[in-house]
From TrEMBL:
This is Probable nicotinate-nucleotide adenylyltransferase. Its EC number is 2.7.7.18. GO terms for biological process: NAD+ biosynthetic process. It comes from Vagococcus intermedius. HAMAP family: NaMN_adenylyltr (MF_00244). The lineage of its organism: Bacteria, Bacillati, Bacillota, Bacilli, Lactobacillales. Residues 27-182 form the Cytidyltransferase-like domain. It catalyses: nicotinate beta-D-ribonucleotide + ATP + H(+) = deamido-NAD(+) + diphosphate. It comes from the Bacteria. Keywords: ATP-binding, NAD, Nucleotide-binding, Nucleotidyltransferase, Pyridine nucleotide biosynthesis, Transferase. The gene is nadD.
Length: 211
Protein backbone atom coordinates (compact mmCIF):
# COMPACT_ATOMS: atom_id res chain seq x y z
CA UNK A 1 0.00 0.00 0.00
CA UNK A 2 1.17 3.50 -0.72
CA UNK A 3 2.76 5.53 2.07
CA UNK A 4 0.42 8.40 1.24
CA UNK A 5 -2.93 6.99 2.25
CA UNK A 6 -5.78 9.44 2.16
CA UNK A 7 -8.69 9.42 4.59
CA UNK A 8 -10.88 7.27 2.37
CA UNK A 9 -8.15 4.69 2.11
CA UNK A 10 -7.52 4.58 5.86
CA UNK A 11 -11.23 4.18 6.64
CA UNK A 12 -11.56 1.52 3.96
CA UNK A 13 -8.51 -0.30 5.29
CA UNK A 14 -9.95 -0.32 8.81
CA UNK A 15 -13.21 -1.62 7.44
CA UNK A 16 -11.25 -4.38 5.72
CA UNK A 17 -9.99 -5.61 9.08
CA UNK A 18 -13.36 -5.29 10.81
CA UNK A 19 -15.11 -7.26 8.12
CA UNK A 20 -12.47 -9.98 8.01
CA UNK A 21 -15.05 -12.75 8.47
CA UNK A 22 -16.60 -11.82 5.17
CA UNK A 23 -14.82 -12.82 1.97
CA UNK A 24 -12.98 -9.92 0.33
CA UNK A 25 -12.98 -10.39 -3.43
CA UNK A 26 -11.52 -8.20 -6.17
CA UNK A 27 -12.89 -8.04 -9.70
CA UNK A 28 -10.85 -6.76 -12.63
CA UNK A 29 -13.28 -6.29 -15.49
CA UNK A 30 -12.04 -5.83 -19.00
CA UNK A 31 -12.11 -6.81 -22.59
CA UNK A 32 -8.83 -8.74 -22.34
CA UNK A 33 -8.26 -8.58 -26.09
CA UNK A 34 -5.68 -9.93 -25.30
CA UNK A 35 -4.84 -10.25 -21.59
CA UNK A 36 -1.35 -8.83 -20.89
CA UNK A 37 1.17 -8.51 -18.09
CA UNK A 38 -0.13 -5.15 -16.83
CA UNK A 39 -3.53 -6.80 -16.17
CA UNK A 40 -1.81 -9.57 -14.22
CA UNK A 41 0.44 -7.20 -12.27
CA UNK A 42 -2.55 -4.99 -11.38
CA UNK A 43 -4.53 -8.01 -10.16
CA UNK A 44 -1.59 -9.35 -8.16
CA UNK A 45 -0.70 -6.00 -6.57
CA UNK A 46 -4.29 -5.26 -5.52
CA UNK A 47 -4.64 -8.80 -4.13
CA UNK A 48 -1.53 -8.46 -1.99
CA UNK A 49 -1.74 -4.80 -1.00
CA UNK A 50 -5.40 -4.95 0.09
CA UNK A 51 -5.06 -8.47 1.53
CA UNK A 52 -7.97 -9.84 -0.48
CA UNK A 53 -9.04 -13.50 -0.58
CA UNK A 54 -9.26 -13.77 -4.35
CA UNK A 55 -9.27 -11.77 -7.56
CA UNK A 56 -11.43 -12.58 -10.55
CA UNK A 57 -10.60 -11.35 -14.02
CA UNK A 58 -13.98 -10.81 -15.63
CA UNK A 59 -14.12 -10.53 -19.42
CA UNK A 60 -16.90 -8.40 -20.85
CA UNK A 61 -19.17 -9.86 -23.51
CA UNK A 62 -19.84 -6.54 -25.25
CA UNK A 63 -17.94 -3.52 -23.87
CA UNK A 64 -20.48 -0.99 -22.59
CA UNK A 65 -18.70 2.09 -24.04
CA UNK A 66 -20.79 3.61 -26.74
CA UNK A 67 -17.78 4.28 -28.94
CA UNK A 68 -15.77 1.14 -28.17
CA UNK A 69 -14.06 -0.70 -31.00
CA UNK A 70 -15.21 -4.16 -31.98
CA UNK A 71 -13.71 -7.09 -30.14
CA UNK A 72 -12.95 -10.72 -30.94
CA UNK A 73 -15.05 -13.71 -29.82
CA UNK A 74 -15.41 -14.40 -26.13
CA UNK A 75 -14.13 -17.97 -26.69
CA UNK A 76 -10.78 -16.71 -27.95
CA UNK A 77 -10.45 -14.14 -25.14
CA UNK A 78 -11.37 -16.78 -22.55
CA UNK A 79 -8.83 -19.25 -23.93
CA UNK A 80 -6.10 -16.61 -23.58
CA UNK A 81 -7.18 -15.78 -20.01
CA UNK A 82 -7.08 -19.46 -19.07
CA UNK A 83 -3.56 -19.78 -20.48
CA UNK A 84 -2.45 -16.64 -18.61
CA UNK A 85 -3.86 -17.74 -15.24
CA UNK A 86 -3.00 -21.44 -15.39
CA UNK A 87 -0.46 -21.36 -12.56
CA UNK A 88 -2.13 -19.01 -10.02
CA UNK A 89 -4.76 -20.18 -7.56
CA UNK A 90 -5.69 -16.71 -6.23
CA UNK A 91 -6.46 -15.37 -9.71
CA UNK A 92 -9.55 -16.83 -11.38
CA UNK A 93 -11.93 -16.06 -14.22
CA UNK A 94 -15.53 -14.87 -13.70
CA UNK A 95 -17.60 -15.72 -16.78
CA UNK A 96 -20.91 -14.16 -15.71
CA UNK A 97 -20.84 -11.39 -18.33
CA UNK A 98 -19.81 -13.77 -21.12
CA UNK A 99 -22.66 -16.14 -20.17
CA UNK A 100 -25.20 -13.31 -19.90
CA UNK A 101 -24.20 -11.87 -23.29
CA UNK A 102 -25.37 -8.40 -24.40
CA UNK A 103 -23.80 -5.17 -23.12
CA UNK A 104 -21.73 -5.76 -20.00
CA UNK A 105 -22.96 -3.07 -17.63
CA UNK A 106 -21.01 -3.37 -14.40
CA UNK A 107 -23.93 -2.36 -12.18
CA UNK A 108 -26.08 -5.21 -13.52
CA UNK A 109 -23.22 -7.66 -13.06
CA UNK A 110 -22.37 -6.60 -9.53
CA UNK A 111 -26.05 -6.59 -8.55
CA UNK A 112 -26.27 -10.22 -9.62
CA UNK A 113 -22.97 -11.17 -7.96
CA UNK A 114 -23.83 -9.49 -4.64
CA UNK A 115 -27.25 -11.17 -4.61
CA UNK A 116 -25.68 -14.57 -5.33
CA UNK A 117 -22.90 -14.05 -2.74
CA UNK A 118 -24.26 -11.99 0.17
CA UNK A 119 -21.23 -12.82 2.37
CA UNK A 120 -18.74 -11.30 -0.04
CA UNK A 121 -17.43 -7.72 -0.10
CA UNK A 122 -16.50 -6.78 -3.65
CA UNK A 123 -13.69 -4.49 -4.82
CA UNK A 124 -14.09 -3.45 -8.43
CA UNK A 125 -10.70 -2.53 -9.90
CA UNK A 126 -10.29 0.02 -12.67
CA UNK A 127 -7.30 1.57 -14.42
CA UNK A 128 -6.72 5.33 -14.46
CA UNK A 129 -8.16 5.62 -17.97
CA UNK A 130 -11.50 4.33 -16.71
CA UNK A 131 -11.59 6.55 -13.63
CA UNK A 132 -12.22 9.77 -15.55
CA UNK A 133 -15.01 8.00 -17.45
CA UNK A 134 -16.85 6.90 -14.27
CA UNK A 135 -19.47 9.72 -14.31
CA UNK A 136 -20.78 8.23 -17.55
CA UNK A 137 -21.13 4.67 -16.25
CA UNK A 138 -24.58 3.17 -16.10
CA UNK A 139 -26.13 3.60 -12.61
CA UNK A 140 -22.79 4.63 -11.12
CA UNK A 141 -24.28 5.79 -7.79
CA UNK A 142 -26.03 2.45 -7.27
CA UNK A 143 -22.89 0.58 -8.32
CA UNK A 144 -20.91 2.44 -5.65
CA UNK A 145 -23.37 1.36 -2.99
CA UNK A 146 -22.71 -2.27 -3.96
CA UNK A 147 -18.92 -2.30 -4.34
CA UNK A 148 -15.77 -0.51 -3.28
CA UNK A 149 -14.05 0.95 -6.34
CA UNK A 150 -10.28 0.51 -6.49
CA UNK A 151 -8.21 2.70 -8.83
CA UNK A 152 -4.77 1.90 -10.19
CA UNK A 153 -2.60 4.45 -11.97
CA UNK A 154 -2.05 4.34 -15.70
CA UNK A 155 0.47 6.47 -17.58
CA UNK A 156 -0.94 9.81 -18.82
CA UNK A 157 -4.11 9.68 -16.71
CA UNK A 158 -4.87 11.71 -13.54
CA UNK A 159 -5.24 10.09 -10.13
CA UNK A 160 -8.08 12.22 -8.89
CA UNK A 161 -11.76 11.45 -8.89
CA UNK A 162 -14.95 12.85 -7.43
CA UNK A 163 -15.75 9.29 -6.32
CA UNK A 164 -14.43 7.61 -3.15
CA UNK A 165 -11.89 5.26 -4.67
CA UNK A 166 -9.17 3.33 -2.88
CA UNK A 167 -5.98 4.04 -4.85
CA UNK A 168 -3.47 1.22 -5.00
CA UNK A 169 0.05 1.99 -6.20
CA UNK A 170 1.22 -0.21 -9.04
CA UNK A 171 4.30 0.27 -11.22
CA UNK A 172 3.36 2.55 -14.11
CA UNK A 173 3.13 0.30 -17.15
CA UNK A 174 2.53 1.66 -20.61
CA UNK A 175 1.26 -1.70 -21.84
CA UNK A 176 -2.16 -2.04 -23.45
CA UNK A 177 -4.04 -4.59 -25.52
CA UNK A 178 -4.23 -2.07 -28.36
CA UNK A 179 -0.42 -1.70 -28.32
CA UNK A 180 -0.08 -5.48 -28.55
CA UNK A 181 -2.63 -5.74 -31.38
CA UNK A 182 -0.81 -2.99 -33.28
CA UNK A 183 2.57 -4.66 -32.80
CA UNK A 184 1.28 -8.05 -33.96
CA UNK A 185 -0.25 -6.40 -37.05
CA UNK A 186 3.12 -4.82 -37.88
CA UNK A 187 5.04 -8.02 -37.19
CA UNK A 188 6.88 -6.40 -34.23
CA UNK A 189 7.94 -8.38 -31.18
CA UNK A 190 5.50 -8.64 -28.27
CA UNK A 191 7.83 -10.76 -26.16
CA UNK A 192 7.48 -10.14 -22.41
CA UNK A 193 4.47 -7.83 -22.85
CA UNK A 194 2.19 -10.82 -22.22
CA UNK A 195 2.64 -14.47 -21.18
CA UNK A 196 4.51 -16.74 -23.59
CA UNK A 197 1.60 -19.22 -23.78
CA UNK A 198 -0.72 -16.38 -24.85
CA UNK A 199 1.76 -15.25 -27.52
CA UNK A 200 1.93 -18.81 -28.85
CA UNK A 201 -1.88 -18.97 -28.95
CA UNK A 202 -2.10 -15.65 -30.85
CA UNK A 203 0.39 -17.00 -33.39
CA UNK A 204 -1.35 -20.36 -33.71
CA UNK A 205 -4.76 -18.75 -34.29
CA UNK A 206 -3.37 -15.96 -36.49
CA UNK A 207 -5.00 -13.30 -34.32
CA UNK A 208 -4.52 -9.54 -34.83
CA UNK A 209 -2.56 -9.89 -38.07
CA UNK A 210 -4.98 -7.55 -39.81
CA UNK A 211 -4.87 -4.95 -37.03
N1 LIG B 1 -1.14 -0.80 -18.24
C1 LIG B 1 -2.18 -0.75 -17.41
N2 LIG B 1 -2.05 -0.17 -16.20
C2 LIG B 1 -3.11 -0.09 -15.35
N3 LIG B 1 -4.35 -0.57 -15.62
C3 LIG B 1 -4.52 -1.16 -16.82
C4 LIG B 1 -3.46 -1.29 -17.77
N4 LIG B 1 -3.93 -1.94 -18.86
C5 LIG B 1 -5.24 -2.18 -18.62
N5 LIG B 1 -5.60 -1.72 -17.41
C6 LIG B 1 -6.93 -1.76 -16.80
O1 LIG B 1 -7.40 -3.09 -16.86
C7 LIG B 1 -8.82 -3.11 -17.10
C8 LIG B 1 -9.10 -3.95 -18.34
O2 LIG B 1 -8.44 -3.35 -19.44
P1 LIG B 1 -8.71 -3.76 -20.95
O3 LIG B 1 -9.02 -5.21 -21.06
O4 LIG B 1 -9.66 -2.81 -21.58
O5 LIG B 1 -7.21 -3.58 -21.51
P2 LIG B 1 -6.57 -2.37 -22.29
O6 LIG B 1 -5.12 -2.69 -22.36
O7 LIG B 1 -6.97 -1.06 -21.70
O8 LIG B 1 -7.25 -2.57 -23.72
P3 LIG B 1 -7.32 -1.63 -25.02
O9 LIG B 1 -5.94 -1.15 -25.31
O10 LIG B 1 -7.89 -2.55 -26.05
O11 LIG B 1 -8.27 -0.50 -24.66
C9 LIG B 1 -9.24 -1.64 -17.26
O12 LIG B 1 -9.73 -1.18 -16.00
C10 LIG B 1 -7.94 -0.94 -17.61
O13 LIG B 1 -7.94 0.42 -17.21
O1 LIG C 1 -21.17 -0.14 -16.63
C1 LIG C 1 -20.70 0.77 -17.36
O2 LIG C 1 -21.37 1.74 -17.74
C2 LIG C 1 -19.25 0.65 -17.79
C3 LIG C 1 -18.67 1.57 -18.67
C4 LIG C 1 -17.36 1.40 -19.06
C5 LIG C 1 -16.62 0.33 -18.57
N1 LIG C 1 -17.20 -0.55 -17.71
C6 LIG C 1 -16.44 -1.71 -17.21
O3 LIG C 1 -15.11 -1.36 -16.93
C7 LIG C 1 -14.26 -2.50 -17.17
C8 LIG C 1 -13.11 -2.04 -18.07
O4 LIG C 1 -13.64 -1.67 -19.34
P1 LIG C 1 -12.72 -1.72 -20.65
O5 LIG C 1 -13.61 -1.28 -21.75
O6 LIG C 1 -11.57 -0.82 -20.37
O7 LIG C 1 -12.27 -3.13 -20.84
C9 LIG C 1 -15.17 -3.56 -17.81
O8 LIG C 1 -15.53 -4.49 -16.82
C10 LIG C 1 -16.37 -2.79 -18.27
O9 LIG C 1 -17.57 -3.55 -18.27
C11 LIG C 1 -18.48 -0.39 -17.31
Amino acid sequence: MSETLNRTQIVARTELKETSKRQQVGILGGNFNPVHHAHLIVADQVYHQLGLDKIYLMPTYEPPHIDHKTTISSELRLDMLELALASDDYLEIETLEINRAGKSYTYETMKTLTELNPDVDYYFIIGGDMVEYLPKWYEIEKLMSLVQLVGVRRPNYPITSEYPLIWVDVPLMDISSSLIRAKVAKGDSVNYLLPRDVINYIEMKGLYRDG
